[in-house]
């Protein structure tokens, strides 16, 4: 579904700010009835424009974590199995397939350097992982 009208885009913008906002509050902000907003949300969910809802953790909590980018070199035809294993590790925040020397880039977060070290070893020990290279995030300069 790529034909979003301005009201759909406004509704999505409001939900990006706060996905727990009530239908009544969304309706007031958009100048629509509650039933119209509910119908639009349901339509956007069915069309998978809204693929799910998530939690944003307070910046202070996130700032206390040590984050790293872990580049993974996978064995032949092992990327799918590695992805499935990484999905089961809650410290893996995002996973990207990338071009170049590495096959995957995992963004991870741990409470301490020691736990980060253990996490990287755990990733390196996964079946199909040939090699990992990691870079600890010192600071975030831009995040959008």
What's the CATH topology name of the largest domain? Alpha-Beta Plaits
Number of domains: 2
**In CATH, what is the class of the largest domain?**
Alpha Beta
Within CATH, the superfamily of the largest domain carries the name Lrp/AsnC effector binding domain/regulation of amino acid metabolism (RAM) domain
Annotated CATH architecture of the largest domain: 2-Layer Sandwich
The helix content, as a percent range, equals 40-55%
Q: State the assembly state of the protein chains.
A: single chain
Beta-strand portion reads 15-25%
Uncertain stretches? none
The mean pLDDT is: 94
Tell me the structural class.
alpha+beta
Order of helices and strands: HHHHEHEEHE
SS field, number of helical segments: 6
User: Order of strands side by side in the largest beta sheet?
Assistant: 2-3-1-4
**How many strand elements?**
4
* Distance between the first and last residues' Cα: 24 Å
Name the overall outline: elongated
Secondary structure layout plus pairing:
Elements: H1 6-17, H2 23-30, H3 34-46, H4 59-63, E1 66-74, H5 79-87, E2 92-97, E3 104-110, H6 113-124, E4 129-136
Helix pairs in contact: 2-3
Any overview of this molecule?
This protein has a four-stranded antiparallel β-sheet. The chain has helices at residues 6-17, 23-30, 34-46, 59-63, 79-87, 113-124, and strands at 66-74, 92-97, 104-110, 129-136. It is elongated, with a radius of gyration of 20 Å. Helix content is 41%, strand content 21%. It is α+β, with helices and mostly antiparallel strands and 144 residues long. Helix 2 packs across helix 3.
């Amino acid at each position: 579904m790529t034909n979003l009208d301005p009201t759909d885009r406004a509704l999505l913008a409001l939900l990006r700010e706060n996905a727990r906002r009530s239908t009544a509050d969304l309706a007031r902000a958009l100048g629509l009835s509650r039933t119209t907003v509910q119908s639009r949300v349901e339509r956007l969910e069915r069309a998978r424009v809204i693929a799910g809802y998530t939690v944003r953790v307070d910046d202070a909590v996130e700032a206390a974590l040590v984050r790293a980018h872990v580049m993974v070199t996978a064995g032949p035809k092992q990327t799918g199995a590695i992805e499935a294993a990484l999905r089961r590790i809650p410290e893996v925040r995002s996973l990207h397939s990338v071009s170049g020397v590495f096959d995957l880039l995992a963004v991870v977060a741990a409470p301490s350097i020691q736990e980060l070290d253990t996490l990287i070893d755990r990733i390196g020990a996964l079946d199909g992982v040939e090699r990992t290279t990691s870079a600890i995030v010192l600071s975030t300069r831009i995040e959008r």
